[in-house]
């Protein structure tokens, strides 16, 4: 299974998910999102009591997980029944991690700031973060892009690969569905506080190992970047990660902040509402610039290469055993 995860990471890093294919058939995340929307529309009745909506949210999560298990097992069985099945299975599995798209979206923020100024930067960063972008200055745009890189490296790359290594295509598909559910309905809003409770709690649970591994990868990657500090990365994790609103996001964000000597997280605005939050990292240089985005991308690329190497090594050890 780690061999599948290794091969999927290599393929996705090289080719990503082609735009022409997305335009023709969409993406597994869009299909999962359609199912979540159907469950939300049908089962999340605003006239129901809080506990009833919570119970229906639990049921919706179970249906989603069950559907992913059934579909992934059917796909895997069908593909492995043909000669080139293993190759096709790798191509399907390669749709689950998001190395290439994450890198390109964060790099697009840096390019927008460099070529189009602050307004272009705000539009670019709005594609990858949920906070209000209209009042962000350049430093805030850069901070938001780096935070998104750190958190989504864990959620969008390490976690699906890790669960694929543990549970094959089924493990990766279940993780991706649960993570998508959290992003769509796992909010403390009037509509989803009850119905999305199970999705949010389950996502917190299944992201625990990946967030910790991501922090270690960022710290290790700092060894290979001049001026970055593996020691400060781990110090920031031990000091600051527990103060993040999320039980998982603080680990990669604190590691990134400590490694680069910057401050991440802190207060931000969502939907016109100010969210108070602790900073991750001591922030030796709080005035972030496009250079910090580029160095953060370099750190993430090295960490990604380490992740691929780790999975390749695990696959080899398992094969030899």
Automatic annotation (TrEMBL):
It is a multi-pass membrane protein. Keywords: Cell membrane, Cobalamin biosynthesis, Membrane, Transmembrane, Transmembrane helix. GO terms for molecular function: ABC-type vitamin B12 transporter activity; threonine-phosphate decarboxylase activity. The chain crosses the membrane at residues 59-92, 302-320. Its main location: membrane. It holds the Pfam family CobD_Cbib. GO terms for cellular component: plasma membrane. Pathway: Cofactor biosynthesis; adenosylcobalamin biosynthesis. It is found in: Cell membrane. The keyword Isomerase does not apply. One of its GO terms (biological process) is cobalamin biosynthetic process. It comes from the Bacteria. Converts cobyric acid to cobinamide by the addition of aminopropanol on the F carboxylic group. This is Cobalamin biosynthesis protein CobD. It comes from Rhizobium deserti. The lineage of its organism: Bacteria, Pseudomonadati, Pseudomonadota, Alphaproteobacteria, Hyphomicrobiales. The gene is cobD.
